[in-house]
């Protein structure tokens, strides 16, 4: 029996280091209760981005440039994370009420500004218009380049052939009043402004990123189109979007940000309510051919393709808008490293977050030092290279054999264990060069499990039950 649905935008972008593009198309009905929405994620270095009119994204000029770009955007993202978590662990409640269906979205990775590595093609408004958006699990605001009241602000962008959302031409776009509690209270974490010239004036925001990029605009709700797994389209109504009229900084090659962080008004949280309170993503090797697709799914992913799913606690509401996990240790070849427990204490000075927007995995210094020490013996077989690429430890891969490298595992407090493939922590930097996929970050502070470490796994975020499921996956099942 078909049922009508409505969805509200949710922020899912982790940070501006790794970008995915997101594509949504929609009609009005879901054909069955177990439906799901699937988005295709596009990596920042995907040739597909360079082919899209209005962007200059795509493959870098060389393998060395590729790793430099990833690390550069990681640095901006880490800075943003540390700034946001400085006044740490501000608790808030996100309700996860709703009905169970399933929405799937394809994902891929793209360019950097400290926001994320993956992009989606996103359709919003009436009639729907296509925009290329960064997905960010570390951001709660969904916004796009837009014109509402400003008469001259979009002229230069139009001359550059940038896509601009004409909000007043969309009859379904409804500004949020500045006098509302949503503006004054709920959206304060999305940098809503206190000014309110009259009660009916739109709620304004001034959103600033760590690299100096700044977007100023107004909040509103509009309709989005998304495609169900079987190809049928549905309308997603009352999606919260930011209409950004003033943009200063590095958003030259993209149209906006799709926020997927944990926040009451983020795209991820609100859409997940409609589809079983769950969303998942699966990332293939970032060096894989473009025929292999990353994806983002809202709804239940069938258990049959992933029989070895493990579950661990998903810690919500402490390191908002990030998704935190309870790590208890790291082992090398089955031996636990001597890492102080306070490095993992999310209620103290430590903790770990999952970040699809960061490429490398960043470990606070007490953890990083132990991990690197465990690799010293096997790395001594190879010539160390000082290439100023970003990763701290790079070496010649002459006579390299996988069997010479130790096996790493990340252990969670409730017994789950992530055993990534070797290529997720010994990465190809360029021809003849490999690097450890770890970098050191400040202590006290938060460690970050980046998207290269997450590759070749399905990750399921269960917001209702505060569980994170994961399992090895080729990301090829429907």
UniProtKB/TrEMBL annotation:
Signal peptide coordinates: 1-26
Keywords (A to Z) from UniProt: Aspartyl protease, Glycoprotein, Hydrolase, Protease, Signal
A molecular-function term among this protein's GO annotations: aspartic-type endopeptidase activity
Active site: 136, 355
Pfam families on file: TAXi_C (PF14541), TAXi_N (PF14543)
Stored PROSITE patterns: PEPTIDASE_A1
DNA-binding keyword on record: no
Presence of the UniProt keyword Calcium in the record: no
Protein name: Aspartyl protease family protein 2-like
